[in-house]
Amino acid sequence: MSGLELYELRKELGITQGDLAEHLGYFSNGIPNRSMIARFENGHASINPRIAMLINQYAKESKELQNV
Prior knowledge:
Layout: H1 3-13, H2 17-24, E1 27-28, E2 31-32, H3 34-41, H4 49-66
Antiparallel strand pairs: 1-2
Helix pairs in contact: 1-4, 2-3
């Protein structure tokens, strides 16, 4: 998964960087660390296969909830 693909998926789902950071467990001082998601999207950090799997799982769950 590329940063652009992540960005487009996040926008399609209507979730914020903070929402995704919270789901992935990226926190700084108890607050979801949206900067880590921004680093992924901007190509400053690579998305490893485990993180990509978690993102895809979250996307699937979000789509299912939107269809309910």
